[in-house]
Write a structure and sequence with these properties.
This protein has 209 residues and is α/β, with parallel strands linked by helices. The protein has nine helices and seven strands, in the order βαβαβααβααβαββαα.
């Protein structure tokens, strides 16, 4: 089976994540997509919400759409796990499955800065969703070569091998970012691109003020 995993800080999860992921599930005809909040290593800037709060919000956001599941594996580890290690662990757990690791275009343009980034595609296909304001224009030579080596334009090839391909989706650009949202929440703006349950949770826990 195909296991799609969409990892992120989700500080907070927002309609940009959810609408693009919904479109992706349709485009690739996949039955479920797991939203996986990541643990952030201590030396990096910490999310505003706690791991538990980020997980709660992801759970709330996933409830209204049965195609979404929640993967709390990274948060359950005693230490932050790099994505390469997480995918390698999943590949060991589910050797017969095809893993799709989903990310936005900004993540792909920075992939060469990730820990053991080349190993990601040894365990999974990478599926990249276009993002408003982020052109597909890699600057780093090693990243360029990596993309050329793995890029497929044909989504059907994702079913013909179980890892090693990079596919750029045709999902719509939804111009929402968590950074912008946190600023809007701080200013107590209303009608934000968040599921209503997530907005209510943020207000109840007085997050991002
Ligand atoms: P920030 O603004 O703080 O960088 P973010 O909105 O990018 O946050 P993350 O939780 O960091 O949210 O994103 C998780 C993953 O989702 C990343 O791979 C990111 O590229 C992708 N993503 C986030 N927002 C969108 C969007 N609007 N469209 C497509 N992909 C997105």
């Amino acid at each position: 089976m195909i296991r799609a995993i969409f990892g992120g800080t989700f500080d907070p999860i927002h309609n940009g994540h959810l609408q693009t992921a919904t479109a992706l599930v349709k485009e690739l005809d996949i039955s479920t997509l797991a939203l996986m909040p990541s643990a952030v290593p201590p030396h990096r800037p910490q999310p505003d919400a706690s791991p538990e709060q980020r997980l709660d919000m992801v759970k709330l956001a996933s409830q209204k759409n049965p195609v979404f599941t929640v993967e709390d594996w990274e948060l359950r580890q005693n230490r932050p796990s790099f994505t390469a290690n997480t995918l390698s662990e999943f590949k060991t757990q589910f050797p017969d499955d095809t893993l799709l690791f989903v990310m936005g275009m900004d993540s792909l343009m920075n992939l060469h800065r990730w820990h053991q980034w080349r190993q990601l595609i040894e365990c999974a296909h990478l599926v990249v969703m276009p993002r408003a304001g982020v052109p597909f224009n890699p600057q780093d030579d090693e990243l360029k070569a990596f993309i050329s080596a793995h890029l497929t334009r044909d989504k059907n090839t994702l079913n013909t091998q179980s890892q090693g391909l990079l596919y750029i989706s045709e999902t719509p650009m939804i111009d929402v970012s968590a950074t912008e949202l946190r600023k809007q929440l701080q200013k107590r703006e209303k009608n934000l691109p968040l599921p209503s349950d997530v907005y209510d949770y943020i207000r109840r826990h007085q997050l991002y003020l």
